[in-house]
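Technical note accompanying the year-one report. For the benefit of new consortium partners, we illustrate the data format agreed upon in the data management plan: each record pairs a sequence with a structure-token string. No post-processing was applied to the example shown here.
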Amino acid sequence: MADLDALRTRWSHTLHRSRGTHTPAPAPAPDPSLGLSPSPGPAPDPSPYAENLLARWSEPQRRYHTPDHLTAVLDHVDVLEKAADDPDLVRLAAWFHDAVYLPDRSENEERSARLAERALPEAGLSAAATAEVARLVRLTVTHAPADDDPNGQVLCDADLAVLASPADAYAAYTTAVREEYAFVPPDAFREGRAAILRQLLDLPRLFHTPHGTREWEGPARHNLTNELTLLTS
């Protein structure tokens, strides 16, 4: 189980550092949809934002996209941080990248990016930093960062690092994904999941950072191939 207090601390430290690096514009009035109260001054308390995000990550329809996944992505960003131009903006993008998640919807990433665009200026982040976080969140639709996009490469690699898990952890991941899609009939799920696995295996590379390429590419392809075999045999 994820340590929610540790996550709250990580959020607070990341937001404080990002505020110090990126000079904020004057904070707009709070968005009522975020469930927050007005705070005086240019830098509101980070805590309500953490609570709002953690509540989203803990919603009952989630089985894989939970605080455990958030923790894992943040841990992987820590491993890859030297490859990023601004690792704290990547961390903020990790917090938002699945903040809106309904398994039966296709616009989760866009809605998550829009949430970041509303919340981060109010939380004291500059317009440019907010735009970068939202861009990174939208990039998780394809996980296809450009060669000159180190921030995007780090976020995408961190998000997909689960594919390189040891066999038992990978099995737990696939079980959790199936539980999130319990409303999909078995045959349709197998067909859809197999199509996704083939698309991933057809990519010239799954990972883009030096560490990801070196450490995760081989194990991930092994796991994906084994899962595809099980689904189609």
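Partners are asked to follow this layout when depositing records. The chain has ten helices and no strands.
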